[in-house]
Design a protein that fits this description.
The chain is mainly alpha-helical and 50 residues long. It has two helices and no strands. It starts with a helix and ends with a helix.
């Protein structure tokens, strides 16, 4: 019984890693885009206090 569970766990981990491998570059790219757009949006604010 333990071998069946271990095999199923191993297959599930492998499937999860395969699923995330394709999405990780997109997630990093979108995160960088959000940071950049936030910076552009906040840039005019300090000028109001000069």
């Amino acid at each position: 019984m333990t071998d069946i569970n271990r095999a199923h766990f191993g297959q599930s981990v492998a499937a999860g890693r395969d699923e995330l491998t394709g999405r990780l570059p997109w997630a990093c790219g979108l995160l960088l885009l959000a940071v950049g757009l936030t910076g552009l949006g906040l840039r005019p604010r300090p000028a109001e206090f000069r």
